[in-house]
């Protein structure tokens, strides 16, 4: 699980040591993601299954894509599909993905890169492995997070952010036992590159065997921690977690995670995808690729899609040169 890393974490800025009086967040809910298939048949874990939207707000949906080691000819993607009313945040840990939309966004993302697409008023989108990966096969692993947009921003023009893994803010714990990659938002004064409509924080944390992370967290944000790989505990009461589980936290000022001293050979550390944001607290009408506030808005989205108002599929996929798409 390479994502973006450094040879020596001890050269990185460090989290502050938290005071003994810090209010650590309790674990309110612990769920295990069911497995399924998406697009043309690539395996996913539905990380938010069974969790009420009120506890997820401002997030809607999270898929862990893979981890899967494809044989030659097996890699799969998605066909063209519409979106309206929210943002998709696609994070690639291992492998390569090409993406393109009908608003001009597109590019190639690979180890540690993030493709942040604000669908807004609507567009069509496609994601697929590049031809060379289809031919050769190989490892593929990533996540796609859906971030809701507030009512006032749902019909904004689409926007695209191409975030390279090396742009993430990197820091470590006081003892150097973990690598913290800040993709969006801010942790202990270190800000990630993602630009967001709703105040949120997204970070990928790798905790070495036996190490502990005390992560300061904004008290007005919710806190969701999904286990990408490995085994460990969450909270001060050390609730066990493993790959494919989601910990939904209650109120407080900080999160605590500890990696088991012994890990599987395939997953040598505890890897966590941690999300939090300021709840929007608006009605949610969600069906398929549309996230709106009312049923009438959903019906309008389907009508606009069928009328071709969300974009026209180009005759050919755009060539990719260097992996950089247009920036907002």
From TrEMBL:
SUPFAM superfamilies: RmlC-like cupins (SSF51182)
Keywords linked to the UniProt accession: Iron, Metal-binding
Entry annotated with the keyword Metal-binding: yes
Signal peptide: none
Binding of Fe cation, residues: 81, 83, 125, 127
Keyword Metal-binding attached: yes
Note on how the cofactor is bound: Binds 1 Fe cation per subunit.
Segments forming domain Pirin N-terminal: 43-147
Location of the Pirin C-terminal domain: 203-310
Cofactor(s) this protein cannot do without: Fe cation
GO terms, molecular function: metal ion binding
Pfam families cross-referenced by the UniProt entry: Pirin (PF02678), Pirin_C (PF05726)
Family: Belongs to the pirin family.
Protein's recorded name: Pirin
Organism of derivation: Micromonospora krabiensis
């Amino acid at each position: 699980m390479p994502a973006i890393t450094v040879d020596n974490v001890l050269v990185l800025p460090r989290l502050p040591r938290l005071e003994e009086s810090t209010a650590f967040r309790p674990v309110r809910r612990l769920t295990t993601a069911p497995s399924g298939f998406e697009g043309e048949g690539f395996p996913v874990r539905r990380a938010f299954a069974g969790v009420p939207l009120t506890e997820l707000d401002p997030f809607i949906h999270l898929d862990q894509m893979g981890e899967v080691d494809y044989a030659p000819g097996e890699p799969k993607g998605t066909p063209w599909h519409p979106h309206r009313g929210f943002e998709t945040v696609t994070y690639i840990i291992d492998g390569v993905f090409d993406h393109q939309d009908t608003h001009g966004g597109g590019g190639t993302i690979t180890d540690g890169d993030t493709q942040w697409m604000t669908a807004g008023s609507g567009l069509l989108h496609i994601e697929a492995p590049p031809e060379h990966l289809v031919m050769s096969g190989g490892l593929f692993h990533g996540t796609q997070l859906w971030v809701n947009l507030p009512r006032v921003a749902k019909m904004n023009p689409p926007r695209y952010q191409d975030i390279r893994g090396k742009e993430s803010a990197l820091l470590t714990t006081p003892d150097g036992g973990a690598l913290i990659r800040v993709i969006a938002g801010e942790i202990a004064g270190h800000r990630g590159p993602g630009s967001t409509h709703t105040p949120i924080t997204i970070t990928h944390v790798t905790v070495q065997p036996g190490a502990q992370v005390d992560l300061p967290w904004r008290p007005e944000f919710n806190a969701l921690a999904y286990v990408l790989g490995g085994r460990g505990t969450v909270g001060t009461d050390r609730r066990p977690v493993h790959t494919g589980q989601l910990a939904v936290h209650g109120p407080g000022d900080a999160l605590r995670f500890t990696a088991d001293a012994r890990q599987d050979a395939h997953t040598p550390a505890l890897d966590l995808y941690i999300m939090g944001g300021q709840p929007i607290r608006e009605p949610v009408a969600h069906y398929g690729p549309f996230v709106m506030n009312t049923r009438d808005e959903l019906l309008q989205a389907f009508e606009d899609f069928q009328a071709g108002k969300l974009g026209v599929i180009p005759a050919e996929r755009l060539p990719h040169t260097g992996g950089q798409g247009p920036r907002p």
